[in-house]
Amino acid sequence: MDMKRGYYEDIQLFESNVVLFWSISFLIFIFTLPLYVPDYHFYLLNLVLVHIILAVGLNILVGYTGQISLGHAGFFAIGAYGTALLMLKMQLPFFLALPLAGFIAAFFGFILGLPALRLEGPYLSIATLGFGLTIMQIIGHWDFFGGRTGIQVPPLDIGFGFILKTDVSKYYLILIITILLVIAARNIMKTRVGRAFVAIRDSDIAAEVIGVNLTAYKTLSFAVSAFYAGIAGGLFGFVLGYFNPEPFNLILSIIFLVMVVVGGLGSILGGILGASLITILQFSLLKNIKEMPYIGDFLVAVSNRWFTVVGLENFGSIVLGLIMIGIVIFEPLGMYGVWLRIKKYWRTWPF
Amino acid sequence: MKKQSLSVLSFIIAMSFFILTTSVNAAPGFDDKEIRIAAWGPQTGPAAPWGSVARGPAVLASLINEEGGIHGRKLKHFVRDDMYNPAQTKVVVKELVEKQGIFAFVCGTGSAGGLAVKDYLAENKVIWVGPATSIKEYVFPVNPYLFSIYPLYEDEGSILAKYAVENLNIKEIGVIYQNDPYGKNGLDGVRQRLDKLGIKAVAEIPVESTEKDLSSHILKLKNSGAKAVLMWVNPTSGVILLKTAATIGYKPQWIASNTLSDFALMHKISGGLWEGVITGAFMLSPDSTDARIVRYRNAIKKYAPEERPGVFFMAGMMFTEPLIDALKRAGKKLTTEAALKALNSTKNFQGIGPRVNWTAAQHQGTDSVQIWRCGPGGSTILVQDWTVNELAIWKKK
Fold first, then answer.
1. Predicted confidence (pLDDT) at residue B14 exceeds the cutoff of 60
2. Best mutation target, A18, A170, A285, A313, to test chain B (most B CBs within 10 A)
3. How many other CB atoms are there within 10 angstroms of residue B59's CB atom?
4. Are B86 and B116 within 8 A, CB to CB?
5. What's the pTM?
6. Residue B338 placed within a domain
7. Does A294 touch chain B (CB under 8 A)?
8. What's the pLDDT score for residue B358?
9. Domain that holds residue B67
10. CATH number at residue B243
11. pLDDT range class, residue B121, cuts 50, 70, 90
């Protein structure tokens, strides 16, 4: 249904004026969000935005280039520690430290991209897995990084005398960065580079035959993806205020992959939807299970009857798992597939 | 075209509906009928066994409510699972403070999670009593809203080393410590005491919490000739150490931190090797015949029969006791300021834990530990009652 008749039609950011109108409406909506939503939700929204940046970046690698990474928690950690330490130890301003940390992550992404030239599938996932675990060990062992205790991030001073303290003010900062990075990702995919990524995904031998430099583009894909993860990590540190190496573990890398797969591989919107859904489910689903009206008492009774003493808290994980399995079984394209179907339905409605 | 716009519109409406329906107002932590307290701790995931401390206060709350509450107000306790992840801790704490309205937090497991929320709690004037871990940053410098009961690992190290040298007459002391603040603080305490006694530890070995093969460490300890080994490690490492030592016939006197004092559990998972191990302890033994402990044990049987009345579950009650005491003293006209004033004037409060003293300038409540030995079948033998660390540096400041 999305018939394109020319190259310039394809690289347009907004396909039509209708899309432009609704995009702007949506932007106005998210920029005025603090008017309708109580402050307490903004911490969660900040986490969602950070994960969107990461998922969009990971999708460039996994969805568009067809490589796999089980080490993205490592890049995420490099971004978080890099930004905080550049600010703490070298007194760099935030807007310099954040991209710099992103580039450090990108450099490591480049390094990790090198073995990717020869490795595929399970072998590549093991190599990236090793990277993720190594980063966590190094950070944990070295007192320079705060060791296992972790580090307190400096105040978020964005220059011009503004120090962002509240979640809402951080929300605006992260929102703007997220929008810029998402548009950038979309545009990269429309360029020669993006098309080379897709060619590698579809068949790397064919891509090489038509003149795509595999070495350059595979490592570039890793570097771009790691850059996104680094920026996301840098912002994550400020959302949290205090962090230690513990959370940047293998499970986090897997959760990142889940976001991309559930959202939809090879689509920018998929990354956004997946990151939003998984983050909200993971952080707020059924946390206050005991105090929920009606269903709370019932679940407590179920838990007491058939579960162990902490059975109740596992309901959240069970439901999260069921939703993930359900999406992957019934909608192989992920949430992006659901979105496509909704669109198709409305296009042909009422027929 | 129109249909497309409709689809986007419906998406936005659906999203705003989703967000708006969950909106609420921030609430104060108490009213005329109830005072809301809460604890976070890992209830799921690998650290879940430490989370039982967060559920303990619920039983104490039931016990208080049975007696008519505090000045007519009932206590309500909330438990939240943070999976030992500071990002999760912040979510659940914010939800509790801004949605439920919490007067005071108790317990609170995990150092990173606690450090991530302590400033947030202070900014929102929420009291936090009895963190279930010892972190120097909690109490030095004084945080006006945070009151700690947990003895510092440093003080414990000093007391245990003194016991080993003076009571057990062992001069060859080896230390094995986890490579984090927990282990390093313990090591500092041992060093401080040994310096004072003019002895040098024969071995000081760092270990990573994730290490599973500890045989090289055991060989080093054996070759150093250590006759007593003090350990600040996690329960798994502790069991691995004992099992590995047993395979090569190395039998020093094992002395461990209070985090390994759940003898019933340790005896079981070590296959009985834990018998004879000496540990520090931050409260009365859960199988003691002390009247307070008996009362709590009966309450657990009544209100939470599915729970095991182990050290950590009862510790949850222990960490809450001084708050209850202060709330009673704060009187009928409850405010956060009144409660803070009462907490700051806590003098020689004795519950099932160590004697607690707080002043406006000092929020580390104690420097005392008990010393236990693991008896047959995981029973507890008290070998030394509450002991003060007379070398405690922080008290001299």
1. no
2. A313
3. 24
4. yes
5. 0.84
6. yes
7. no
8. 93
9. 34-151+288-366
10. 3.40.50.2300
11. very high
